[in-house]
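[job 0412] stage=fold_complex status=start
inputs:
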Amino acid sequence: MIKANDVSLIYQDGTKALRNVNLDIKPGELVYITGPSGSGKTSLLKLIMGMEYPTTGNIRVLGNSFKKNNTGKIRKIRKRIGPVFQEFKLIEGRTAFENVMIGMRFLGIKPKQMKQRAHESLEKVGLGHKKLSKVENLSWGESQRVAIARAVARKPALILADEPTGNLDYDNAINILQLLKSFIEKDTSIIITTHATHLIKDEQNATFIQVNKGEITVDRRGKSYEKLSV
Amino acid sequence: MKSFLYNIGYFIKETGRIIRLNLLSNVFSIIGTGLILIILGIVIVGTDIGNRLVVMLNEEAEISGYFSDSVDEEAKETVVERIGKIQGVTSVRLVSETEAQDRMKDILGDEAKILELFDENPFEAFVEIRIDMEAIDNILDDVASMIEIEYVRDNRAVLDNIKDITNTLKLFGYLMITAVGITTIIILSHMIRQGIYNNKEQINTLRLLGSPSGFIGLPYILSGILLTFLGGMLATVSIVSLINVAYEGIAGTIPFMPLPPRTDLIEKMMIILPSISLSLGFIGSLFGLSSIRERA
Ligand SMILES: Nc1ncnc2c1ncn2[C@@H]1O[C@H](COP(=O)(O)OP(=O)(O)O)[C@@H](O)[C@H]1O
Ligand SMILES: [Mg+2]
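[job 0412] stage=fold_complex status=done
writing structure:
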């Protein structure tokens, strides 16, 4: 799904966000990216979404590598990703339902099917009763669920969730992680970043990528422990 | 392509939303475009009337040949025959002295009494030659070179004047079309850029979700086309009423003015103005869109 070879990312202002990243994420894998604030978790997701390009090394996502200026290729990869941004990026002035719809509109899905998927995914995240509310009138937690519904309604091969537990208390954080995990399928991987390691310490079948000052350590729990870079 | 068909309702809604988002400036841009197109319409109507005059004068193009003294009736007949054979002459007729005098009587009307002061008919017989305007130079040369003809009178000067005016109007028309085009495109692309700027977060989100630029841009193109089209409709309605008012006014005061048929003119305006506005809308939107096109 994702293969990174010796990837580094240096921002234009000279900030070294990631160094020597080597990764191999398989279909159906649940991946947690942990690390303190500012360590480079979001930067890693940005590389996966083609929002940034590796300064050195290369990264392949869903069988394609992002080429700068090849917008066609970038779109093709992005269409198969369901992102849940840290700040959600919902479109204001529209209902929850329309926000979920808009994520599917350019995927070539028939209108009836789009509507059905939008209803289903909003029900699934527990927002069946708020479908027709404008997103600016929703609470933080509700907005997050709309963002998740928008991502999963696309039936993506890869779900990315950036700090979904950020503002939540323990119970709600656990619930949202449970919700996200419920979308894992044979061909669908999920990558979740969080700085709250205590929430996932009991997790059994997951891959942990620990980011520390731009360097990563990969821990495949239950499988072999691989130290790729320190 | 499928995505476009599946989302027609969405595009229409988005278009409405984009226009409503900046309603006041959009209304002004409709009025602005409308006014510019009205001026363009007036120039086109003016050119049309000028053309019509030229065509009519061309059809009526007529020269008169006056005989030298001492040409007898028989010789006059042969001259008429010879002139009739010149290429470009559509008809030729001998106007006798009496007929010439009768014509003048008609023209003078009540004042015809003045002609009674003459003992003899002061008018001369002449040949009235209707011609194809294209061939006027050759015909003039040929006729003037005949010994029996003393001099030739033509209305070319008048015709040339009107042609000049019409050509100037035409040139002015082209300038107008260019000016209207550029102005509308600038107004419009500015409106669209503004719209894109106001929606930049939404556009960015759509990009991150993998939306093609065409999908993002279509509502902007549609709103641009709609805005200029409404301006075009405004102009069309105004010009049509203007034509109606003007024709009624002219019919009352100068009944013999050779105007093009009113319905022709109206029909022409109803085709030209909306299509110009549609094309300008399309081009202007594309210009405006160039700001979002090639990014992922
Ligand atoms: N666009 C950017 N330009 C420059 N520096 C950036 C940019 N985005 C993030 N950074 C820096 O890169 C480092 C990693 O940031 P980030 O990936 O957002 O960390 P995290 O998500 O783990 O909190 C930080 O030092 C941050 O300040
Ligand atoms: Mg972050």
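[job 0412] summary: The pocket of adenosine-5'-diphosphate (ligand 1) is lined by residues A 11, 13, 15, 17, 35, 37-43 (CB under 6 Å).
[job 0412] exit 0
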